[in-house]
Amino acid sequence: MDTYDPHIYEFSAPGKQGVNLPRLDVPEAELPAALLRQDGMNDFPELTEPEVIRHFTRISQRNASPDTCFYPLGSCTVKYNPKLHEEAARYAGFAAAHPLQGDALSQGALRLMYELQQDLGEISGFDAVSLQPAAGAQGEFTGILVFRAYHCHRGDHERTEVLVPDSAHGTNPATAAMTGLKVVEVKSDARGNVDLEDLRSKLSPRIAGMMLTNPNTVGLFEDQIVEICELVHSAGGLMYGDGANFNAILGIAKPGELGFDFMHYNLHKTFTTPHGGGGPGSGAVGCTAALAPFLPGPLVRQGADGRYAFFTPEKSIGRMKAFHGNFGMLVRAWAYIRSMGATGLREVSEVAVLNANYIRARLKDLYPQAVDRICMHETVLKGQIAGAQGVRTLDIAKRLIDYGFHPPTVYFPLIVPEALMIEPTETESKRTLDDFIDTMRTIAREAVEHPDLLHQAPTKAPVRRLDEVRAARQPILRYNAEAFAKLRAERAS
Ligand SMILES: *Cc1c(COP(=O)(O)O)cnc(C)c1O
User: N6-(pyridoxal phosphate)lysine: which positions carry it (predicted)?
Assistant: First the structure.
């Protein structure tokens, strides 16, 4: 049912209160007028403690999250966040550490950062790691700034272009453009990989490098990756690896060995730190020894005496983030890597890939595949159901909400029409996958027999179809009695 619960303001009544202040035991005095607030408090609600608690608890239960449901959002790797990591991040020595307390009083925190740098470098085959960037997108921005600094330092000032495949995530062209370089698109071939002919035609002494996601956003491994890297290098360019899909190759392939020069790790995707609204992100970056002097600092190193200290590389592009990155996320990622171990991380990728292929194999008769190939950790299908009139991917996604699933990514990658990009992750049981598959098959049948069920979906969520553009551009963030009354009347009619 579509319901709008009474807003907390509507419970308000003069004189209600949620705290009992102790009796005044000092002489009463007037506050100086200058300290009195002049505005804004007139319509503050007056409520009891239980009313406030119920309000906030109720709205917190309206979140969809990997703690409450299957969350197969493709490209984003929304996997379960083990609670062990939360405990580690809350240790007082980490949570209460002050970023200015100095190296001598921060040896434990520095050791953790140093070990995380080492571990990420080992897992990816890179010589140096900076934990500064706050997200994958900022890691991309960092990487292209480092490429530019590297070329300029060598007196190579004419490299003004960055190659980006047409399957790329929007952040790739956006971050490259933010550095002032020009984005040149490279086409994909019929197998869903980089079109080598098109790539060759776009190589020139003007390229600073290429940004590539491998496996790519069609969920496919770029099996010509070694040749792609050689081509770009032979034109004097550098290879940026978008590590958002690292979950598919942990312990199996190292980007540094495939030929990449630089990459970001989305700690909030692959390394289980909370995603999206669940916490700040972390987009640590790794690179080859040749690019290490340009990394944003400070980094952590260990001296001959065994003590840890911050240092900034000699030709650093500067800071990307205040203090030391999102430190709480570094603790969680460290805990993840250490609790999984090398064999555990490899198993993560093996099971993630197996799960995606299981879904692909059991749905491809009803939902056409973007490309008929074995996939990596996510599968891209199309919401084009045979015999279903006027049903679109968006309708399928909305109907999944009625069945208690978070929808997959839709309409991305842009090169796949009606894309449904499903990433189950390794933490889901066969039973959950089977429930999801059965539901997708039911929806395909409904699409043919009762398409209105899909067009009207979701009917069981707290709200129906939202105007997503208006919700993003003109959000109503404050209580507005008139707007609420209007919404409720609209829904009731
Ligand atoms: C998520 C994602 C990014 C951006 O990462 P953020 O951490 O969200 O900034 C870049 N590329 C791909 C392929 C992604 O899925």
Answer: 269
Q: What is the DSSP string of 336-352?
A: HHHHHHHHHHHHHHHHH
Which tokens sit at 213? 């996601």
pLDDT per 10-residue tile (average), the chain, 493 residues: 62 87 92 84 82 88 89 94 96 94 95 98 98 96 98 97 97 96 97 97 98 97 97 98 98 98 98 83 97 97 97 96 94 98 98 98 98 98 96 98 97 96 98 98 98 96 86 83 79 73
- Number of residues that this document lists for the chain: 493
Measure 51 CA to ligand 1 centroid, in angstroms.
39
Contact 402, 329 (CB under 8 A): no
Q: Which two tokens stand for residue 416?
A: 């796949």
- Three-class SS state of 52: helix
The pLDDT of residue 1: 35
Q: Which residues, at least 6 apart from 63, have a Cβ–Cβ distance to it below 8 Å?
A: 277
Alpha-carbon distance of 326 to 334, in angstroms, equals 13
Q: Where are the alpha helices (DSSP H) in 304-379?
A: 327-363
Question: At 150, is the secondary structure helix, strand, or coil?
Answer: helix
135 ligand 1 Cβ < 6 A: yes
* Right CATH for 84-340 from 2.60.40.60, 3.40.640.10, 1.10.10.10, 3.40.50.1820: 3.40.640.10
Does the reported pTM lie above 0.70? yes
Mapped onto helix, strand or coil, the DSSP state of residue 238 is strand
Dist. CA 481–CA 2, nearest whole Å: 19
Ligand 1 atom at shortest distance from the alpha carbon of 138: 9
Tell me, using a 6 A CB cutoff, whether residue 133 lines ligand 1.
Answer: no
Determine the pLDDT at residue 466.
83
CATH number for region 351-471: 3.90.1150.10
| H or E element, residue 278 | none
Q: Which atom of ligand 1 is nearest to the CA of 139?
A: 9
Calculate Rg over the CA atoms of the chain. 26
Count the alpha carbons within 13 Å of 259 in the hemisphere toward its beta carbon.
22
Conformation bin of residue 214: beta by default, left when phi > 0, alpha when psi is -120 to 50: beta
Say if ligand 1 is within 6 A of residue 173 CB: no
CA distance 344 to 91: 25
Spatial separation of the C-alpha atoms in residues 426 and 354, rounded to whole Å: 8
> DSSP assignment, residue 264?
E
CA distances 134 to 110, 265, 327, Å, are: 18, 11, 10
> In 3D, which of 468, 151, 88, 395 has the Cα closest to residue 294?
151
Of the CA atoms within 13 Å of residue 244, those in its CB half-sphere come to 29
262-264 and 285-287 as β-strands: parallel, antiparallel, unpaired? Answer: antiparallel
